[in-house]
Amino acid sequence: MIKWKKKLQMPKKYLSMLGMARRAGRLAMGHDMALGAVCDKKATLIIFASDISERLIEEFKLARDKRYPELEMMRISESIDELHRALGYKAGVIAVNDSNFSVRLIELIKQEEDEYGNKD
After folding, report:
1. Per-residue DSSP letter, 90
2. Least confident interval from 47-51, 99-103, 107-111, 113-117
3. pLDDT digits (tens, 9 = 90+) for 3-42
4. What is the DSSP string of 12-44?
5. What is the SS3 assignment for 88?
6. Using CA atoms, how far apart are residues 4 and 84, in angstroms rounded to an integer?
7. How confident is the model over 36-95, as pLDDT tens digits?
8. 88-92 contacts: CB < 8 A, separation 24 or more?
9. Could you tell me the CA-to-CA distances from 19 to 1, 3, 80 in Å, in that order?
10. Closest CA to 9 of 62, 72, 69, 78
């Protein structure tokens, strides 16, 4: 009988950084909280899971364009369930409310998504 080895993938650094931001209280997770952070101009980065609907992304783009056009928005390769396992909260959209975390997360996401070959 052949035993197949499961291919292990190294944990992505930006998931660790998101966990750190969550423990620091700098994330607004879920649709309503993230949209509220955009409307209040508290958010410095919006992160979408890979399986979020296009309608939801368009809703956030409209809110951003109306109130906060310089806000950065990114879609990552993790699904809602994978984010749930990494952060302990089931949400498909995350608003980062700290500029220092945002800058570092953008760097890590771009670096690691390119490394794993997942390009938006």
Report:
1. -
2. 113-117
3. 555 555 667 889 999 999 999 999 999 999 999 999 999 9
4. PHHHHHHHHHHHTT-EEESHHHHHHHHHTT--S
5. coil
6. 27
7. 999 999 999 999 999 999 999 999 999 999 988 899 999 999 999 999 999 999 999 999
8. 88/22, 89/22, 89/29, 89/30, 91/29, 91/30, 91/31, 91/34, 91/49, 92/31, 92/48, 92/49, 92/51, 92/52, 92/56
9. 40, 34, 15
10. 78
Structure tokens at 5: 């080895």
Instruction: Please name the residue that has the structure tokens 């953008």.
Output: 106
In angstroms, rounded to a whole number, what is the distance separating the alpha carbons of residues 47 and 6? Answer: 29
Cβ-defined contacts of 105-109 (< 8 Å, 24+): 105/14, 105/17, 105/18, 105/21, 105/45, 105/47, 106/45, 106/72, 106/74, 108/12, 108/13, 108/14, 108/17, 109/14, 109/47, 109/74, 109/76
